[in-house]
Design brief:
Blueprint: H1 3-8, E1 12-14, E2 20-22, H2 32-47, H3 49-63, H4 70-74, H5 76-92, H6 97-111, H7 119-136, H8 143-166
Antiparallel strand pairs: 1-2
Length: 171
């Protein structure tokens, strides 16, 4: 491992492939049962992918009207596909923290997010949580709602540490 990377991984663990994993993320790791619930209910979401994407983007635009950029509106088919591909990767990697960390860092770079405090991330999280709840209709405090909340927290925790990762110099 190169020293520049180690310096940029302060207060984190280094995964087996040299990826920084914020130490606080451990508190958000899902149990095997929660991962199973997220994966099982994701099948419902994937079956309703068009509805999910429509609801997500409508809610995101309602929360932040500045999102409504011409390229988003004119290329909605591509945007929907990218949303589903990103969610599929995340759901499949919930039990592989090292790969999930890489995926979240790549998504942060792709969308120009600057950490979990970025207002665009907060808007996306709120819009996605709202859409998931409307499609799955879990009861308050249900195991499904808790599992998805933990998954959102895990991604947010990884995103909080992903910008230094994504910009880490290979030295």
């Amino acid at each position: 491992m190169r020293p520049t990377l180690a310096l940029q991984c302060a207060d984190t663990e280094i995964g087996p492939d040299g990826i920084c994993i914020p130490s606080t993320v451990k508190s958000w790791i899902l149990t095997p049962a929660q991962i199973g619930l997220v994966r099982a209910t994701f099948q419902i979401l994937a079956t309703n992918r068009d509805r999910l994407a429509e609801m997500f983007y409508a809610r995101a635009i309602a929360l932040d009207p500045q999102i409504r950029r011409p390229q988003l509106v004119s290329n909605m088919v591509t945007q929907r596909l990218q949303l589903l591909l990103a969610l599929t990767d995340i759901v499949q990697q919930l039990d592989d923290l090292s790969r999930l960390t890489q995926t979240v860092a790549a998504l942060a770079r792709q969308y120009g997010l600057y950490g979990a405090g970025d207002p665009r991330f907060q808007t996306a999280r709120a819009a996605l949580a709202w859409s998931v709840e409307r499609i799955l209709e879990p009861g308050p405090d249900s195991a499904i709602q808790v599992a998805w909340g933990r998954a959102f927290d895990l991604v947010e925790g990884l995103l909080a540490g992903s910008v230094p990762l994504g910009r880490a110099s290979a030295g």
